[in-house]
Each structure stands twice: as C-alpha cells, then as structure tokens.
Amino acid sequence: MTVGKHRKGLAVTAALLGGVLTLSAxxxxxxxxxxxxxxxxxxxxxxxxxxxxxxxxxAKDGTDNASINNGxxxxxxxxxxxxxxxxxxxxxTAIEGTxxxxxxxxxxxxxxxxxxxxxxxxxxxxxxxxxxxxxxTFTTVAPEHSVIGTYAGEDGATVGxxxxxxxxxxxxxxxxxxxxxxxxxxxxxxxEVVGHWFGNDRLDFRPQEYWKPxxxxxxxxxxxxxxxxxxxVGVQDKKVTFNIGRKQVSTVDVNTHKMxxxxxxxxxxxxxxxxxxxxxxxxxGQMVISEKHKETRMDGNTVGFGRKGAxxxxxxxxxxxxxxxxxxxxxxGNYWGAxxxxxxxxxxCVGLKDNRGAASTSTDGGWFYENSMIGDVVVVKGSPxxxxxxxxxxxxxxxxxxDWKAGSAA
Length: 410
Description:
- This protein is an alpha+beta fold.
- It has three domains: 54-141, Sandwich (Immunoglobulin-like); 145-245, Sandwich (Immunoglobulin-like); 248-397, L,D-transpeptidase catalytic domain-like.
- Helix content is 16%, strand content 35%.
- The strands form seven sheets. A five-stranded mixed sheet has the order 21-20-19-27-22, with no helix packed on it. A four-stranded antiparallel sheet has the order 1-2-5-4, with no helix packed on it. Strands 9-11-14-13 form a four-stranded antiparallel sheet.
- A hairpin with a 5-residue loop joins strand 6 (117-125) and strand 7.
- The chain starts with a helix and ends with a helix.
C-alpha cells in the first residue's frame, strides 16, 4: 500500500512536471525566438531610416509666451534645412525668412507680432538624404505680459560727456537683478560702468566721472525671455551704440549772473545770464542737456504758474531752448527782456539774450545753442535753491559714487 501510494505520487508529480515543461515549451520555443529576432530587425531598420538631422525651434509647441525675436528661428544639426514655412494662423499670411548660406539656420525677415498665433513647419535632410520634419504651433507673448525698455538717446548719435544710459520700462520691474544682469553697458574708455535704479521702472548707467571724450559706449539689451516679475517677460534683443564727443561743461554762477563755457579745458566764452528769481530760484547742481528745440512753446499751465497774473506766462516761440530737467528747467534764449548779467528774474530757467524767430546764431542764445549738443553738462552754483534730484532729468551726476553703486541690483 505504501509502495502503491508512492508510485501514485510519482505519477502525479511527473504529470505536474510534464505540464510545467509543456507550458514552458509553449512560451519559449523556436517560434518565439523568431518573433524577437523580427522585432529587433524592425527596430534596426527603423533606426537606419531615421534621419540624423536634428531640427531645433525655440518656441515650444502650444506655448502662449513665445519670443517675438527668436521664437521662430530654426536651426539644424546633422543636416541642412530644405524648407521652412511660417504663417500667422488667423490671417494665413506667410512670413518670409532668410536661409543661411550653409543651410544650417533660418529666421524671419521681420520681428513677429505680439499676441499672435503662428504655425511653422521645417524640413531638413542629412548627408544620406533622410528627411526630418518639425512642426510647431505657438502664440507670441502678449503686450500686457511683455516688458520693453526705452533708451533716452539715439543709436549712432554723438553726445556730450554727461549723457547717461537711461532706460525707462513700460512695466514695473520686480525682478530687478535678472533685468539688470541682462543689460550690459561698456565703453572703449575702459571706465567702470554701474547701473542705478530709480524706482521700479527706470535704470540708469554711468561711470564714476564723465565719459572720456572721443570714446564709444555700447548698450546691449539681452532682455528677450527674461523674467521681470509679476508674470512679465522681456521681449528685446538689441544693441545700441553712441559716440562721446568733446567735453563741454558750462558753469552758471547765479551770484555773478554769468555763464562760463569750457570745452576740453579751455574757456570758449563767458556769457551774461539771468537765472531764477528769489521766489522761483534755479536748481543747483549738474544738469545734462536732454532735448534741443530751435523754438518751443512755454506754457505756465504745465508747471503750475498759470497763464495770467503776476507769475503767469504763455510764450509760443521761445528761441533756442534746451531742456535741463523733467520738471521744466531749460536754458534758453530770451527776446522779451531781462537784466542779463545783473539780475535774476526768470521762473527758474537760465536765460540768454536772443532775438525773436531763432534765426540768428550770433546772439548769445543762438551761439550757445549752435555750440551745444545733447549730453553736454550745465552746472549751476550759487543759487538759494536746493540741488536738483538725480532722477529729475538725466542728472544722476549729483549722486555720490557710493550712493550710486548702492542702487544697483546686480
């Protein structure tokens, strides 16, 4: 009985083992090996057919804050571009572009519009003629979420030694360090240049002393894609250069009623002036000429004096006017009369004897206008008024170097 039971157990065990062996044979026999081999061959063939060309488009598919400067720029590695098409989705307007001579890059001929949806398709081939295709649909950053900085001067201009690099932003900047770090200002003079923030929307750059005469200053705005805070991003990628001319600094002495004009260390002329009256004194300090107008209207309403009464005025043709402050300080010609050289009777401006019509350059006002440029410095001293605020015009020179550097975020 014992033997019988033992044999029966052996039989069951054999059957079970046979079942296991049978199952193993079903899942791992010769046919399965052929399937794996075929799959490997399919993968290998697919890899052989895959192009080595790798297309890159900065704007991600579906993004709604693509760059207007380089979002649609196309580049390729391991091949050459054969076709690129870009169009505005809503209008269907095709955007023309330029393909590089080596076929490695393509970019639109014009800056993209903000808050606009675009479709782009790029095709490339590798050295074996295998094709690669990349398609994207994206929307450029909207005006309400983009930041633009406006430079106070003009690209390529020649200016005086006092002209700072002053940038005003159209949005409040919260991430000041990131924005300032993306802006580079350099000079061929080798002077150290430091930025200073006035509030959250203005950033000025200057060296410790006036720019060296006959040097060149370069402003490089690399703000494209920079996070400015509050959900806003920069959209600019541009470079501006300007030349520094001769050094002209004119000093107004309110007490002696005279202005000494010096150029490159030599006195050109000493002119009689009439500065601000006792009730409306002229600011003291270093002031930079920021605008020039052969003729301009000066309206007392714009600065709180009104047009009538003892302090009121409205002169529609003030000759040879040059702005020294945002608040309304000018140095200008005066044809209506003042005690030039002996008294101060203006509303705060510096007046020079002139003729109506601004036709003459032989008058004191005309001569000074013709011999001055944007960026020249006018220094006022001896006035009973306070020193002008550094952010009232382009007048950061009235701040000590240590205080200036303390206002840098970088």
